[in-house]
Design a protein that fits this description.
Blueprint: E1 2-5, E2 12-17, E3 20-36, E4 39-54, H1 61-89, H2 103-113
Antiparallel strand pairs: 1-4, 2-3, 3-4
């Protein structure tokens, strides 16, 4: 997830909370200009991922980054599939044997089923319209 900062963030930050470690890993840290009320200041933007592990967390930046990215993709994919399944279920009644499904509905349903194959999935999804 793109996150904005007023100060340059560290690539990795571990915050201990009781028996857990909250681990933030960041990549693609870039400087940006922030305009507010007629003035400009320098800020930063980065791709940020996080995860929670039992304390003490022992691992490398690369391990945490890979794991956190995988967890984010899994979570976003699950959310997208739930939305897709809900949209499919809204037209299920048209798939009954005594119904003749219009071509636009067939195309719509196929486009919904093809969502996980889109090149930007799960970050960028082109949701079909009925």
């Amino acid at each position: 997830m793109k996150t904005h900062y007023t100060q340059k963030p560290n690539k990795m930050e571990i915050i201990n909370i009781d028996d857990k470690d909250l681990i933030y890993v960041r990549e693609n840290i870039e400087e940006e200009t922030i305009s507010t009320e007629g003035s400009e200041t320098t800020g930063y933007i980065a791709d940020e991922y996080y995860m929670t592990l039992p304390h003490p967390a022992t691992g490398s930046y690369e391990e945490y980054l890979s794991s956190a990215k995988s967890m984010e993709i899994e979570s976003l994919s699950s959310i997208a599939r739930e939305r897709r399944d809900k949209l499919l279920s809204e037209t299920d009644y048209l798939a009954l044997s005594d119904q003749t499904m219009p071509e636009n509905v067939k195309s719509y349903r196929q486009a919904l089923r093809d969502i996980p194959e889109q090149s930007g999935f799960p970050y960028e999804i082109n949701w079909p319209q009925l």
